Amino acid sequence: MSTQPLITFLTGAGISTGAGIPDFRGPQGVWTRDSEAEKTSTLSWYLRDPEIRKRAWQLPAASAVWDVEPTPAHRAIAELEGSGQISGIITQNIDGLHQAAGSSPELVHEVHGNVRRWRCEYCRAAGPMAEMIDRVRAGEEDPPCPMCGGIIRATTILFEEMLDADVIEAATSAAESCDIMIAVGTSLFVQPVASLFPLALEFGAAGVIVNAEPTPFDSAADEVIRGDIQDALPAYLEGLRS
Ligand code: NAD
């Protein structure tokens, strides 16, 4: 039996900025540069306003994820899995880069969904997102459902929507069962996911935060690493191994 500490990661958009996908709240974030952009992630705006949907389909994060590679930090997490030390990877990201780096899908809890598929808001139609991206790139600004003509969207969780109960249950259990929780590239601002960090600490885990900017939980953490994730996280994980 392994005596090494079990680690659960809580990752956010900052782990993927190195892959070219902008975060929301960092200095170059989509919302930092354009406060209106938040509407594209809000259900009522998305359903009500075709202009918002057109912007949602054009967002850099929505189109960039099709062409990017996982970062050294994603790969460092995936490599650690071989040592049996990972109890979960809770991610707020919708880009699928943990799995692309080689992390086992059953360990990755995508609490805000993912952009791999589209679905219709009104009928049961659904399919791979790549086919919708092809339609958008071919000039359809707000592609309608091929079955009923209704509004289609990515299988992400928008503001005003409930999280998937099974996914949040698995994420909660990964937070409660680890020895170390490492929050990486997240402002720890979005609830209820941010509360999984103090929950892990309540259940006895040590808390580590790797982020360029302060978070609301820095003072509760045992260690705060302020450097660039792409250097700092692989170095930190290497240190844990030796
Ligand atoms: P956030 O934008 O609120 O915070 C990201 C944090 O990462 C910031 O504090 C920023 O300073 C830090 N950061 C960025 N690049 C860094 C680097 N190279 N080194 C160190 N720190 C760095 O992100 P969040 O907390 O994940 O919340 C945003 C929400 O938006 C999430 O719900 C997520 O679903 C979604 N989102 C996802 C993606 C994606 O899938 N890649 C991209 C943008 C937004």
Automatic annotation (TrEMBL):
This is protein acetyllysine N-acetyltransferase. Residues 1-242 form the Deacetylase sirtuin-type domain. It comes from Brevibacterium pityocampae. The active site is at H112 (proton acceptor). Its EC number is 2.3.1.286. It holds the Pfam family SIR2. InterPro entries: DHS-like_NAD/FAD-binding_dom (IPR029035), NAD-dep_sirtuin_deacylases (IPR050134), Sirtuin (IPR003000), Sirtuin_cat_small_dom_sf (IPR026591), Ssirtuin_cat_dom (IPR026590). It is an enzyme of class 2 (transferase). SUPFAM superfamilies: DHS-like NAD/FAD-binding domain (SSF52467). Coiled coil: none annotated. Zn(2+) binds at C120, C123, C145, C148. The keyword S-adenosyl-L-methionine does not apply. Keywords: Metal-binding, NAD, Transferase, Zinc.
